[in-house]
Amino acid sequence: MPSSTSPTPLAVRLFVLHHAGGSHLTFRHWPRLLPGTWQVRLLDAPGHGRLLDMEPAADAGRLADFLLERLEPELHDPAPFAFFGHSMGAVLAYEMTRRLAVRGRALPVWLGLSARGAPPGAGRGPRARHTLDDAALQAHLRRLGGTPAEVLDSPAMWARFAPLIRTDLRLVDSYTLTPGTPRLPVACCVYGGRADGTVPRERLAAWQDLTHRFGGVRLFDGGHFYFLDDPAPLLAQITGDLSAALAATRTAAAPN
């Protein structure tokens, strides 16, 4: 006899974007730790994870367009969607949202940006981490954490992954905004580690200048990869922040 129980409606589709040199594998446990009514989609950039055989992109705009094209059917779905990005992923989440806004398309109900400060204006000289020699770059990555020790310690593994890491870092460090870029009309919350020496709190807070609905900065114990050992505190905060954005959207859409 067919069940009379209707499937639970999808509350939101959350797209998660990874850091430089990373992949969806960093977040592989997240879908089962977030609410069951959410569909959590872990994305890979070309050259990473499930797209390892593709040429990596060194430009944030081109990569944002690539990801938006792949997500096109899902972004047309009636269910609301949201973006969360960590480090390089934060740059991509913002740029994808900005491009949707410029094109007059449906926007995410919420934007979560982690461990990345707001981009500088055009004309400001970019950082050049991708030009560091191998020893200096390896030392930088060790300080950040998040890169497997076998990649840094094995000459063969380093030779394989260093070009990809350098391409990603060039993408991040060269990303700037044109002065006067309009603020996004999207709820935005920013996350970071208290001990992250590469992204001071004031740079995290600078995202408030790029959105009309800034929800604040949430800091956690740890460094650049503050959630790796225990993602529960971050995921609890994301659950609350995104749920609040969904509730505000429903209230705004309700008839008077």
From TrEMBL:
Membrane-spanning intervals of the chain: none
SUPFAM superfamilies in the record: alpha/beta-Hydrolases
Keyword terms of this UniProt record: Hydrolase
Biological process terms in GO annotation: lipid biosynthetic process
Matching Pfam families: Thioesterase
Residue span, Thioesterase domain: 13-230
Signal sequence interval, chain numbering: none
GO molecular function terms attached to this record: hydrolase activity
Family: Belongs to the thioesterase family.
Record's protein name: Alpha/beta fold hydrolase
Organism of this sequence: Streptomyces typhae
